Amino acid sequence: MRPTRLAGTGRPPTVRRYLPPLGGDATGPDPTNRGKLGTKRQVLADRRGAPLSVVLSAANRTDMKRAEAVLDSLVIRRPPPTAAQPQHLCRDKGFDYPETDRAAQARGYVVHTARKRRRGEAPPPPPAADRRHPARRWVIERTNSWHNRFRKLRIRYEKTAANYLGLVQLACALIVYRLCLFLG
Fold first, then answer.
1. Are the beta carbons of 52 and 75 closer than 8 angstroms?
2. Are 156 and 37 in contact (CB under 8 A)?
3. What's the Rg (C-alpha) of the chain?
4. Which strand (E) or helix (H) includes residue 55?
5. How many domains does the chain contain in total?
6. Which of 50, 53, 129, 147 is least enclosed by beta carbons within 10 angstroms?
């Protein structure tokens, strides 16, 4: 069998090229995108959609593992909740765990979470009229849409999580500026 030779010089290469790894830190295989490396942004927003807290994690981390970090990384001081002015926290099914419920209640939030139904389980009865709180998931979905309108954030090209987090925080500042400018 003949040894393989490259076109051109007729000799094998003497230097190997080492490319940097794709993705960088705070990335993981994305379960929805054929296992490619990805980053997840967990965002806490107010009722207008202004981002108050952002935490980065690998795409394969569950939301419940980073829930406390999101609640603890607020960039502004939170007013203390009172009986007359309770602070509601609307969450999706990814946060339906007793640990995250306890963490949110320990911080003084009134928790509203869409509950997961286990296989074969009957649907839960609707809450009483005085306990019902309208779902406001669209607020955070709109905030995520505002983030994705920044081309630099839509696909992560940065190797370090600190650089990407800085860009996300700059986008959050621009979003808050635009909200203050247009909504008053």
1. yes
2. no
3. 23
4. strand 51-58
5. 1
6. 129
The model's pTM: 0.75
Question: Could you tell me which residues come within 8 angstroms of residue 145 by beta carbon, excluding any fewer than 6 positions away?
Answer: none
In a domain, 66, yes or no: yes
DSSP 112-155: EEPPPPPTTPPPPPPPPTTT-----HHHHHHHHHHHHTSHHHHS
Residue where the block lists tokens 């705070």: 26
For 170, half-sphere exposure in the C-beta direction (CA atoms, 13 angstrom radius) is: 10
Per-residue pLDDT of the chain (184 residues; tens, 9 = 90+): 555 555 566 666 666 655 555 566 777 777 777 777 888 899 999 988 999 999 998 888 888 888 899 999 998 888 888 889 888 888 888 888 889 999 999 999 988 887 777 788 887 777 777 766 666 778 888 999 999 999 888 888 888 889 999 999 999 999 999 999 988 6
